[in-house]
Amino acid sequence: MAKKKVIYWFLLLFLLLVQGGCLGVRWQEKETHILVYEIEPYSSSGYVLPVPLARVAVSGNGYSSTKYTDSQGRAVFLLSPGTYSVQVSKDGYESVSDTITIYTLELTPGYYPFYLVRQ
């Protein structure tokens, strides 16, 4: 009888842990890199230059955040599965916007390049 109770308690504990993990969204969040570049105007090789300090606004799926790119032209967000609107801007450049979709079963970080054009 005592052995059955221990098994039931372990089963209950296991189910609670599994359910708690499934209900939490954090495990589904995906590291998402927004990469902002400017195509070098006179390059015959198509080189791109990172754009530091570009404003990147991401919104959608109940989420809204704004970050600025680092010296490599990168802003990193943790996003749950869903569709998001991304708006990139910087003084002296034309603003760019697009949508991105984060899928549930993606396990690797996502990289989304955006290209700015000088005004």
UniProtKB/TrEMBL annotation:
It comes from the Bacteria. InterPro entries: Carb-bd-like_fold. This is Carboxypeptidase-like regulatory domain-containing protein. The lineage of its organism: Bacteria, Pseudomonadati, Atribacterota, Atribacteria, Atribacterales.
